[in-house]
Amino acid sequence: MRPCDGDPMSPITARHPTTAPTTPTVASRARSTPTPAPARGAGVGVLLALLATVVWSGSFVATRGMADAVPPVQAVFWRWIIALAAVAPFAARPFWRQRGVIRRHFGFVALASLLGVALYNTLVHQAGLTTSATNMGMIMAASPVIMAVWSRLGGERLGVRRVLGMATAVTGVLLLVGKGSLAVDLAAGDLWMFAAALSFASYSALLRRRPAEIDGRAFLLATFLLGALMLAPCYAVSLTVQGGFAVGAGTVGPLLYVGVASSAVAFFAWNRAISLIGAARAGVVYYLQPVCVALLSAALLGERLGVLGAVCMALVLGGVALASAPRTRAAG
Question: Given CA atoms 312, 321, 298, 133 in this order, what sign does their dihedral have?
Fold first, then answer.
C-alpha cells in the first residue's frame, strides 16, 4: 500500500498500432506491486513511530498521577474531548471538505474509531485497576507481534532480518519487565490487557488499508469524534454511578497531556508512520516503550536501572535497529 499523501498516476496507454502491447501489462504489474518506501521516507517513518512511542510512554506517568482521582471511563472520555479541541483548528477544514469521502468509507472509519479510540485506552485503564504496571508492559509487548501477524496475513513479507530483530527486542522486553525472568505471573486484569493489545494491533494493521483519498487530518478528526460519541453512553453511566471528579492541578494537567500529546500528537505521528513504513516495522519500534518507561521512572521516580536494565535495553535497541532498517535493493 502506498503512503496516503501521493495519489498514483494512471499509466498512459498508447493507441498507435505500432506500439508494443507489453507496455500496459508492465504498467499494470507495477501498479499492483507495492513499492517499498524510499530510504528517506522509511527513516522519517521510524522517527515518527519513535515519537509516538516516547509520548505514549509518558502517558503512563500521567495516568498514574490521576488514577485515584478520575474514574477510568471518564478519564478516557475527556482525553478524546481534549484531543478533539486540539486537532480541530488544523483538521476541521479538510474534514468538512471530505465529508462525502468519509461518508462513503464510514464503515472503515467507524471500525478504526472503535479499535483505536474507544476500546484500546478504555481497556488499558480497566486493566490497570486489577493488574500491575509490569504485567501491563509485558502484555503490551505482544502487540507488535500481533501487528506482524496481521501484516503477514495481508501479504506483507517480513523477512528473516525483521523476524530476528523482533525476537531479539521481545526477549529484551520480557527480561526487563520480568526482572531477569521469563516467568509470567498473570493477575485477573491481564485478560483486559490482552484485549487492549489485540485492539491496538488490529487498529495499526487496519491503517495500512486506509483509503488513500482520505486526508490524514480529516481521518484523525473523524476517528476522534466517532470514538468520543461511542464513549458518551459509558461516560454517562460512570457519571451516574461513580459521580464526577474534582477539577484541579492533579487532574487537569494529566488530562491535558494524554489529550494533547498522547492523543492528538502521538496518534497523528503513529498513523503517518504506518503509512510510510507499515504496521510491522512500526510495531518493532513500539518495543521501545518499556525502555522509555524505565528511563522516565529513573528520571522522575529515582528508580535505578542496574546492570540487568542496561543489558535488556541493549537487546531492545539492537533488535529495533535490526528489524526497522530499510531493505536495500540490488542495483540493476
Answer: negative
- 248 DSSP 8-state letter: S
CB 63 within 8 A of CB 125: yes
Is there a contact between 222 and 95 (Cβ–Cβ < 8 Å)? yes
Residue-wise burial string across 224-256, b where 16 or more C-beta atoms lie within 10 A, e elsewhere: bbbbbebbeebbeebeeeeeebeeeeebeebbe
DSSP state of 257: I
276: Cβ contacts below 8 Å, ≥ 6 apart: 3, 37, 41, 42, 44, 45, 48
pLDDT digits (tens, 9 = 90+) for 137-192: 667 766 777 777 787 777 777 778 878 887 887 787 777 666 677 666 666 777 88
SS3 211: coil
Whole-number pLDDT of residue 46: 87
The half-sphere exposure of 5 on its side-chain side, counting CA atoms within 13 A, is 8
Give the Cα separation of 107 and 87 in Å (integer): 22
Q: Which three cell numbers stand for residue 2?
A: 502506498
Grid coordinates representing 17?
498500432
* 47 vs 303, more confident: 47
Q: How many CB atoms lie within 10 A of CB 50?
A: 19
Are 283 and 320 within 8 A, CB to CB?
A: no
C-alpha dist (Å) from residue 28 to 33, 190, 311: 9, 48, 49
Cβ(63)–Cβ(254) under 8 Å? yes
Alpha helices (runs of H) in 154-288, residue ranges in sequence order: 159-177, 190-207, 216-242, 249-256, 266-285
Q: Which helix (H) or strand (E) holds 315?
A: helix 306-324
